[in-house]
Amino acid sequence: MDLANLLLIPLIAAVLILALEKCLRRNHSSYPQARPYSGGGDLSSHAWCRFHVRYYPMALLLIAFEMEMMFMYPWAVVYVAEGIKALMEMGMFLTILALGIVYAWREGVFRWQ
Amino acid sequence: MILNELLLPIFVVLITLILGAGVVDYLHHATSALGKQMSLRRSLNPLAPLYRLGLALSQQSVITEHPDRLNLRLAPALYFALAALGLAVVPWSADFIPADLVTGMVLWGAVEVLATVVIFLCGWSANAHLPLLGAYRYVSLGLSYMLVSMFVLIGVALPAESLQLSAVVESQREIWNVLRQPMGLPLFLIVGLGLTFWGPLDFASSPDLDRGISADQSGASRLVWQLARYAMLVAFSFMAATVFLGGWLGPWLPGPLWLVLKATLVLLILLWMGHNLPVMTPDKFISVAWVLLLPLSFVDLIWAGALALW
Amino acid sequence: MAVSLWQRLAARASVPVFVASGKDEPDEIQDMLWQTGRIKLVFTPRHASLLVVTGQIPVEQSQSLAIIHDQLPHPRATLWCGGQPCFEFIAAKRAPSPQTLVASAEDLPQRIKETQKQLLSGKRQSEPDLNPDRPPAPWQGKGDHGQGGEGMMGGKPYGRPMAMMEADLRDGLMLDALEFSVGPFYHGLPAGLMASVSLQGDVILKWQVESPPFPTALPSVFVRALHQDTPLADLEIWRVRVHLQRLARMMALDGLDCAAVRTLRLAGPLPCITQAGLGALQKQVGSLEKHLRKRGFFALGAGIGELDAQQANLMGGYVGRACGMQEDARSTSKPYQALGFTVSCQDKGDVQSRRLQLFAEVHQAIALAAKAGREEVMLTHEEIETPVGRLTKRQAPKDHSEMLQSLLPGMEWREALMTLASLPVAGATREGGWQ
Q1: Cβ–Cβ of B124/A48 closer than 8 Å?
Q2: Is the reported ipTM for this assembly greater than 0.85?
Q3: pTM for the complete prediction?
Q4: For the CA atoms of chain B, what is the radius of gyration?
Q5: Can you name the CATH fold of C5-121?
Q6: Quick one: which of B61, B188, C110, C346 has the fewest CB in 10 Å?
Q7: Between B235 and B65, whose confidence is greater?
């Protein structure tokens, strides 16, 4: 039953919003209306382009941490049972990661490149 | 049986989100009007959200040139669905839990991660310049707050010895997590601001982008996006109340009422922050998130770990 | 057609208004609407039902105004306050829409509410588009969905041409640079400023000014002091007012709407303030500053938009003093010396120090006004320090938008707009103000 709810709730929620928007909107937009807003200025190109992702080194660093989260979920469940050993292990793991952050910081990863 | 276990939970979750969104709208505008010292009678008018609803529905929804129509429609629907998914795992009382998942915390983590995708999609699909810039900025924010949230939530799971939210509530019978792990709630509130790009972390629809991802929305399409955003704020408030303020636990009143009261308190704090703190600059926030907030969340986790073994 | 339930509800909501400011119109009207109940100023025409045009729109900008007009969702209407409508020549060939002229700013809130009611009840037709309903870049593509053109760069499948590649300023990567022009009615920019910008990510590669901001009208009291004896207290009170209005706009750009409205409420009634009121004002400004300091309004600007000595010198006024220059026309005038005036300065030339400097000058000006008011000091001087720079008989404060072309490239969008809001970019006209 829990799983059924878990599937049904977001599904119904999404359908609800889609239906709501479909019934409520009146949206024939003429070309002058559809023009993207920029304060009245000219638009020489469409918006989609190869964007400069200025935080890409940060995004790479995040992947390393996200992998680490996979270990942390099961660790959290057995933590009290395992006791001080688990604390030491995770402490070591976090120390290494923290050193990584310090290094990345020094290299200027957390700036808008 | 079907009624109790299937229809009732679905009904409760959706109604909470929709009514909750109305309450968010009301409180947001009322507190803003009070902050601006507008006339009391008008700022506190309980029907004001209905008027705004009427206004949104009497307006045409403009669609930009050559948009990604599918994603333009899907983004608000998915954002709302994520809010519903997050709220579904929150226990209302000992025996009423819409979806009592053993890995409820992991699910909430997934909601936070997917929210980044959905918000980006909203700005991207309009094929317009300012929405795209807002979406682009939002991703940097989404990638920065995610880890803080995970560590804080793991810290909460330690004393409960479980990732199930009902167990997390049970573990707070003697003392709430907000006292046991004092750094947890403040850090988690920052995550909430990020998740709903609210107030100081409103990078996606900030004033300098003339409302960014919302800059080209109008009428009903703006309404559903706002609805989804408010709903996410509601879902977050319930989650924060559950993991830090003892959820439905409390004397005298029935459990669900306690939960609603506590969630409202969290909501009010978030709204206060929204009105009072300036929007941060995006590049500064990356540094703050990684160099200050993340180490703080480490400390929070170690603190929680040491205390759990005590 | 019967009025639907939604429209009846909508008639009771706050009216969303997009303001397009024109020439000779300091942002007074906008500031007034900000503080008015049941009217909501919005940042984009998409969220508005009414377009309010304040002041005169020059012919060059009327096409941009027409673009903004067409971007409002239906039902929509335009109100003109303090200037003549300029849509005739565009709409001449099409059905003329009713023009609503509002004679005085005091009537404006009332007229806004009435017009919205008429629109919603169907008594007034929604205004039709001014521009022709034609695709901006008509192009029939090849392939099943019209996706293909000639080679990689061909075609305009997304309505407009593709962005062209350009090397990035910070790391030299060759990527698409997003090119478009912003303004003259972009909410975050000074009114009238139009620039063609090129962005990579949200960092500005190029900022080419296409038209400078509309000059602001200097309060007449500053011009009067060049020629005849003027109460020194008046000068200082107007300085407080202009500075507070500038600070309020910075707060709004930071999302601090409540603080911004509080600031405007302090600034609005200043011209008729009494001696006793000055003491209270000093306290209120003090508590406002403390409120903002605690919430990081000043710290936010640290290290952003630093000017070098040459740029600060060019700008002069409070910008120069925020950069540590001891230059102030007031220090050469006898009445000011008699009041014990000393130049106050900050040391860094960034947004933070400009915000601090503005507050410091507000405090100083209130104190000077109180003292000068008690002693009834009068002043005529050939050089007047206005809130936006130095004014002499020959020269008004100049327009500095050219400087933006070298100042803004390399900045992140938000930082660029914060910098812009902290500088008096627009020149000043010498005529009397809005009053």
Answers
A1: yes
A2: yes
A3: 0.92
A4: 19
A5: Rossmann fold (3.40.50)
A6: C110
A7: B235
